[in-house]
Specification:
With 244 residues, the protein is of the alpha/beta class. It has a single domain, classed as Rossmann fold, CATH 3.40.50. It contains eleven helices and nine strands. α1 runs parallel beside α6 and α8 packs across α9. The protein binds S-adenosylmethionine. S-adenosylmethionine binds next to α1 and α3.
Amino acid sequence: MDIDYWDKICKNYCSEILSVYDDDLQGIVKQRIKEAGAAFSSARVADLGCGVGRFTPLLANSFGEVDACDFSIVGLGKAKRRCRGLGNVNFHQVDLSRDVLPFEPVDFAFCANVLIMPTLDKRLRAWRSVCSQVARGGSLLLVVPSMESAQMEFYDSIESHLSDGYGCSEAVRLSIEEKATTADLRLGIYQLDGVKTKHYLREELKQMLEVREFEVKSIEKVKYPTEGYGNLFRWDWLVSAVRK
Ligand SMILES: C[S@@+](CC[C@H](N)C(=O)[O-])C[C@H]1O[C@@H](n2cnc3c(N)ncnc32)[C@H](O)[C@@H]1O
Protein backbone atom coordinates (compact mmCIF):
# COMPACT_ATOMS: atom_id res chain seq x y z
CA MET A 1 0.00 0.00 0.00
CA ASP A 2 2.66 2.48 -1.03
CA ILE A 3 2.32 5.55 -3.27
CA ASP A 4 2.67 3.45 -6.45
CA TYR A 5 -0.20 1.22 -5.34
CA TRP A 6 -2.48 4.19 -4.63
CA ASP A 7 -1.47 6.03 -7.82
CA LYS A 8 -2.56 2.93 -9.76
CA ILE A 9 -5.85 2.66 -7.84
CA CYS A 10 -6.58 6.39 -8.25
CA LYS A 11 -6.31 6.09 -12.05
CA ASN A 12 -9.55 4.09 -12.07
CA TYR A 13 -10.81 4.67 -8.54
CA CYS A 14 -14.45 3.57 -8.63
CA SER A 15 -13.86 0.45 -10.70
CA GLU A 16 -10.81 -0.60 -8.63
CA ILE A 17 -12.17 -0.43 -5.07
CA LEU A 18 -15.30 0.07 -3.07
CA SER A 19 -15.96 3.83 -2.88
CA VAL A 20 -17.46 5.03 0.40
CA TYR A 21 -18.99 8.03 -1.37
CA ASP A 22 -20.65 6.00 -4.14
CA ASP A 23 -21.43 2.69 -2.41
CA ASP A 24 -22.70 3.77 1.05
CA LEU A 25 -26.22 2.32 0.78
CA GLN A 26 -27.85 4.72 3.23
CA GLY A 27 -25.76 7.78 2.46
CA ILE A 28 -24.93 7.98 6.17
CA VAL A 29 -21.46 9.45 5.69
CA LYS A 30 -22.73 12.31 3.51
CA GLN A 31 -25.52 12.87 6.01
CA ARG A 32 -23.10 13.16 8.96
CA ILE A 33 -20.92 15.60 7.00
CA LYS A 34 -23.94 17.74 6.10
CA GLU A 35 -25.13 17.75 9.74
CA ALA A 36 -21.70 18.90 10.94
CA GLY A 37 -21.61 21.53 8.18
CA ALA A 38 -25.05 22.84 9.16
CA ALA A 39 -23.85 23.23 12.76
CA PHE A 40 -20.42 24.74 11.94
CA SER A 41 -20.68 26.22 8.44
CA SER A 42 -17.67 28.53 8.78
CA ALA A 43 -15.38 25.87 10.28
CA ARG A 44 -11.97 24.93 8.87
CA VAL A 45 -11.91 21.29 7.89
CA ALA A 46 -9.47 18.71 6.56
CA ASP A 47 -9.99 15.87 4.10
CA LEU A 48 -7.15 13.60 5.23
CA GLY A 49 -6.32 11.12 2.47
CA CYS A 50 -8.74 12.78 0.05
CA GLY A 51 -7.89 10.39 -2.82
CA VAL A 52 -9.59 11.44 -6.05
CA GLY A 53 -11.70 13.90 -4.03
CA ARG A 54 -15.03 12.10 -3.94
CA PHE A 55 -15.96 13.88 -0.69
CA THR A 56 -13.97 17.10 -1.14
CA PRO A 57 -16.63 19.17 -2.99
CA LEU A 58 -19.24 18.21 -0.36
CA LEU A 59 -16.85 19.33 2.38
CA ALA A 60 -16.11 22.57 0.49
CA ASN A 61 -19.82 23.28 0.06
CA SER A 62 -20.61 22.48 3.70
CA PHE A 63 -17.78 24.30 5.52
CA GLY A 64 -15.72 27.50 5.36
CA GLU A 65 -12.34 26.23 4.21
CA VAL A 66 -10.90 22.81 3.34
CA ASP A 67 -7.35 21.51 3.47
CA ALA A 68 -7.30 18.32 1.38
CA CYS A 69 -4.25 16.12 1.42
CA ASP A 70 -3.01 12.82 0.05
CA PHE A 71 0.33 11.34 -1.00
CA SER A 72 -0.93 10.21 -4.40
CA ILE A 73 -0.22 12.76 -7.14
CA VAL A 74 -2.74 11.00 -9.39
CA GLY A 75 -5.41 11.26 -6.69
CA LEU A 76 -4.64 14.90 -5.97
CA GLY A 77 -4.75 15.77 -9.69
CA LYS A 78 -8.24 14.28 -10.00
CA ALA A 79 -9.38 15.89 -6.73
CA LYS A 80 -8.20 19.30 -7.96
CA ARG A 81 -10.12 18.89 -11.22
CA ARG A 82 -13.23 17.86 -9.30
CA CYS A 83 -12.97 21.00 -7.15
CA ARG A 84 -12.35 23.39 -10.04
CA GLY A 85 -14.47 26.47 -9.40
CA LEU A 86 -14.46 26.02 -5.63
CA GLY A 87 -12.35 28.78 -4.11
CA ASN A 88 -12.06 27.43 -0.56
CA VAL A 89 -9.97 24.25 -1.04
CA ASN A 90 -6.19 24.00 -0.55
CA PHE A 91 -4.42 20.84 -1.71
CA HIS A 92 -1.25 19.37 -0.18
CA GLN A 93 0.85 16.36 -1.11
CA VAL A 94 1.79 14.78 2.23
CA ASP A 95 2.58 11.34 3.56
CA LEU A 96 0.52 10.99 6.74
CA SER A 97 2.94 8.32 8.03
CA ARG A 98 5.95 10.58 7.63
CA ASP A 99 5.36 14.31 7.11
CA VAL A 100 4.37 17.16 9.38
CA LEU A 101 1.13 18.50 7.95
CA PRO A 102 1.53 21.98 6.44
CA PHE A 103 -1.61 23.49 7.97
CA GLU A 104 -2.99 24.20 11.44
CA PRO A 105 -5.19 21.69 13.30
CA VAL A 106 -8.79 21.97 12.12
CA ASP A 107 -12.29 22.10 13.66
CA PHE A 108 -13.48 19.03 11.71
CA ALA A 109 -11.32 16.31 10.18
CA PHE A 110 -12.65 13.70 7.79
CA CYS A 111 -10.60 10.56 7.15
CA ALA A 112 -12.21 7.78 5.12
CA ASN A 113 -10.48 4.42 4.65
CA VAL A 114 -6.98 5.79 4.98
CA LEU A 115 -5.83 4.25 8.30
CA ILE A 116 -5.83 0.82 6.71
CA MET A 117 -2.15 0.18 5.99
CA PRO A 118 -1.10 -3.32 7.12
CA THR A 119 2.25 -2.23 8.60
CA LEU A 120 1.80 -1.40 12.27
CA ASP A 121 4.42 1.35 12.58
CA LYS A 122 3.22 3.20 9.46
CA ARG A 123 -0.36 2.90 10.64
CA LEU A 124 0.39 4.22 14.13
CA ARG A 125 2.31 7.17 12.68
CA ALA A 126 -0.65 7.96 10.40
CA TRP A 127 -2.98 7.71 13.41
CA ARG A 128 -0.78 10.24 15.22
CA SER A 129 -0.96 12.69 12.26
CA VAL A 130 -4.72 12.36 11.95
CA CYS A 131 -5.42 12.77 15.68
CA SER A 132 -3.07 15.71 16.15
CA GLN A 133 -4.60 17.49 13.15
CA VAL A 134 -7.89 17.90 15.07
CA ALA A 135 -7.94 21.04 17.23
CA ARG A 136 -8.98 20.62 20.88
CA GLY A 137 -12.76 20.67 20.97
CA GLY A 138 -12.83 19.77 17.27
CA SER A 139 -14.41 16.69 15.70
CA LEU A 140 -13.11 13.67 13.82
CA LEU A 141 -15.26 11.67 11.40
CA LEU A 142 -13.47 8.43 10.64
CA VAL A 143 -14.36 5.55 8.30
CA VAL A 144 -12.45 2.26 8.62
CA PRO A 145 -13.08 -1.36 7.57
CA SER A 146 -14.88 -3.49 10.17
CA MET A 147 -13.30 -6.68 11.49
CA GLU A 148 -16.72 -7.87 12.64
CA SER A 149 -17.96 -7.54 9.06
CA ALA A 150 -15.00 -9.56 7.74
CA GLN A 151 -15.68 -12.23 10.41
CA MET A 152 -19.35 -12.40 9.35
CA GLU A 153 -18.28 -12.92 5.72
CA PHE A 154 -16.09 -15.79 6.90
CA TYR A 155 -18.99 -17.29 8.85
CA ASP A 156 -21.28 -16.89 5.85
CA SER A 157 -18.75 -18.43 3.49
CA ILE A 158 -18.58 -21.55 5.69
CA GLU A 159 -22.38 -21.77 5.75
CA SER A 160 -22.65 -21.50 1.98
CA HIS A 161 -19.93 -24.14 1.43
CA LEU A 162 -21.76 -26.47 3.83
CA SER A 163 -25.02 -25.93 1.99
CA ASP A 164 -23.18 -26.67 -1.28
CA GLY A 165 -22.42 -30.11 0.17
CA TYR A 166 -18.83 -29.71 1.39
CA GLY A 167 -17.80 -31.34 4.68
CA CYS A 168 -16.93 -29.20 7.72
CA SER A 169 -13.12 -29.20 7.41
CA GLU A 170 -13.33 -28.55 3.65
CA ALA A 171 -15.77 -25.66 4.21
CA VAL A 172 -13.37 -24.08 6.73
CA ARG A 173 -10.32 -24.67 4.50
CA LEU A 174 -12.04 -23.09 1.49
CA SER A 175 -13.10 -20.07 3.54
CA ILE A 176 -9.71 -19.21 5.06
CA GLU A 177 -7.47 -16.85 3.14
CA GLU A 178 -4.43 -18.81 2.06
CA LYS A 179 -2.04 -15.90 2.39
CA ALA A 180 -3.08 -14.86 5.90
CA THR A 181 -0.58 -15.52 8.69
CA THR A 182 -1.68 -16.11 12.28
CA ALA A 183 -0.41 -12.63 13.18
CA ASP A 184 -2.47 -11.12 10.32
CA LEU A 185 -5.64 -12.77 11.59
CA ARG A 186 -5.02 -11.65 15.19
CA LEU A 187 -4.28 -8.09 14.06
CA GLY A 188 -7.32 -7.83 11.80
CA ILE A 189 -5.28 -7.79 8.58
CA TYR A 190 -7.62 -9.31 5.99
CA GLN A 191 -7.42 -9.20 2.23
CA LEU A 192 -9.63 -6.69 0.45
CA ASP A 193 -9.52 -7.17 -3.32
CA GLY A 194 -6.39 -9.26 -2.78
CA VAL A 195 -4.59 -6.57 -0.74
CA LYS A 196 -3.74 -6.85 2.97
CA THR A 197 -5.91 -4.26 4.73
CA LYS A 198 -6.30 -3.41 8.42
CA HIS A 199 -9.81 -4.01 9.77
CA TYR A 200 -10.91 -2.73 13.19
CA LEU A 201 -13.05 -4.03 16.00
CA ARG A 202 -15.64 -1.62 17.34
CA GLU A 203 -14.13 -1.84 20.86
CA GLU A 204 -10.62 -1.43 19.48
CA LEU A 205 -11.60 1.86 17.82
CA LYS A 206 -13.17 3.13 21.00
CA GLN A 207 -10.05 2.28 22.98
CA MET A 208 -7.65 3.72 20.38
CA LEU A 209 -9.51 7.02 20.36
CA GLU A 210 -9.92 7.24 24.12
CA VAL A 211 -6.20 6.80 24.79
CA ARG A 212 -5.60 9.55 22.22
CA GLU A 213 -7.82 11.91 24.25
CA PHE A 214 -10.93 11.70 22.11
CA GLU A 215 -14.45 11.22 23.37
CA VAL A 216 -16.29 8.81 21.08
CA LYS A 217 -19.78 10.16 20.32
CA SER A 218 -21.03 7.36 18.06
CA ILE A 219 -19.92 4.31 16.10
CA GLU A 220 -22.28 3.44 13.24
CA LYS A 221 -22.33 1.05 10.31
CA VAL A 222 -21.74 2.25 6.75
CA LYS A 223 -23.53 -0.49 4.83
CA TYR A 224 -22.54 -1.66 1.36
CA PRO A 225 -24.22 -3.94 -1.18
CA THR A 226 -23.75 -7.69 -0.62
CA GLU A 227 -21.59 -9.79 -2.86
CA GLY A 228 -23.76 -12.84 -3.24
CA TYR A 229 -23.85 -14.10 0.36
CA GLY A 230 -27.30 -14.71 1.89
CA ASN A 231 -28.85 -11.61 3.43
CA LEU A 232 -25.54 -10.37 4.69
CA PHE A 233 -24.24 -6.91 3.92
CA ARG A 234 -20.69 -5.70 4.37
CA TRP A 235 -20.03 -2.68 6.51
CA ASP A 236 -17.34 -0.22 7.57
CA TRP A 237 -17.29 1.58 10.91
CA LEU A 238 -18.15 5.29 10.91
CA VAL A 239 -16.80 6.89 14.06
CA SER A 240 -17.64 10.35 15.29
CA ALA A 241 -15.36 11.62 18.07
CA VAL A 242 -14.44 14.92 19.73
CA ARG A 243 -10.93 15.81 20.86
CA LYS A 244 -10.83 16.73 24.57
C1 LIG B 1 -9.40 4.13 -0.05
S1 LIG B 1 -8.75 5.67 -0.54
C2 LIG B 1 -9.95 6.78 0.19
C3 LIG B 1 -9.99 8.12 -0.49
C4 LIG B 1 -11.04 9.06 0.09
N1 LIG B 1 -10.85 9.28 1.50
C5 LIG B 1 -12.43 8.54 -0.17
O1 LIG B 1 -13.05 8.03 0.75
O2 LIG B 1 -12.90 8.65 -1.32
C6 LIG B 1 -7.37 5.86 0.51
C7 LIG B 1 -6.55 7.11 0.21
O3 LIG B 1 -5.58 7.27 1.25
C8 LIG B 1 -4.37 7.71 0.67
N2 LIG B 1 -3.27 7.35 1.55
C9 LIG B 1 -2.94 6.11 1.98
N3 LIG B 1 -1.86 6.17 2.77
C10 LIG B 1 -1.51 7.48 2.85
C11 LIG B 1 -0.46 8.17 3.51
N4 LIG B 1 0.45 7.53 4.24
N5 LIG B 1 -0.39 9.51 3.38
C12 LIG B 1 -1.31 10.18 2.63
N6 LIG B 1 -2.31 9.58 1.96
C13 LIG B 1 -2.41 8.24 2.08
C14 LIG B 1 -4.31 7.01 -0.67
O4 LIG B 1 -3.45 7.65 -1.57
C15 LIG B 1 -5.77 7.03 -1.11
O5 LIG B 1 -6.03 8.14 -1.90
